Amino acid sequence: MSVDLATVKRVAHLARIAVSEDEAQRMMGELNGILGFVEQLSEVDIEGVEPMTSVTPMAMKERDDLVTDGNKAADVVANAPVSDRDFFLVPKVVE
Predict the structure, then answer these.
(1) Does 9 score more than 90 pLDDT?
(2) Which pLDDT score is estimated for 68?
(3) Which of 17, 42, 50, 79 could form a disulfide with 12 if both were Cys (CB 3.0 to 4.6 A apart)?
């Protein structure tokens, strides 16, 4: 796939970027270079390659997936102006 000058100008217009004729010519070459590199990457055989989270081997840190209330309810409402049994009390709003 290659990008022509009209496509560069259209993308610049959609992105609301003002580009001169010289800048559009330069961008056309740069975008075609990028797309050429991406096409080269699609030719690489990745069959059997595991996905990576890092370039260096590392064990992912894991924790037990336990549901808790956090045991922090009293701490959460400690600064509330008014609370009742670990719940915030707010004024009733009737409009």
Answers:
(1) yes
(2) 79
(3) 17
Provide CB contacts within 8 A for 22, sequence distance 6+: none
Q: How far apart (Å, rounded) are the C-alpha atoms in residues 9 and 17? A: 9
- 17: which 2 tokens? 């970027």
pLDDT value at position 40? 92
Residues 6+ apart with CB under 8 A from 19: 8, 9, 12, 27
What would the two tokens of residue 61 be?
Answer: 């840190």
* Residue 31: pLDDT band with limits 50, 70, 90: very high
Rounded to whole angstroms, the Cα distance separating 40 from 44 reads 7
For residues 47-62, give the mean pLDDT.
84
What does the alpha-carbon distance between residue 31 and residue 4 come to, in Å, rounded to a whole number? Answer: 10
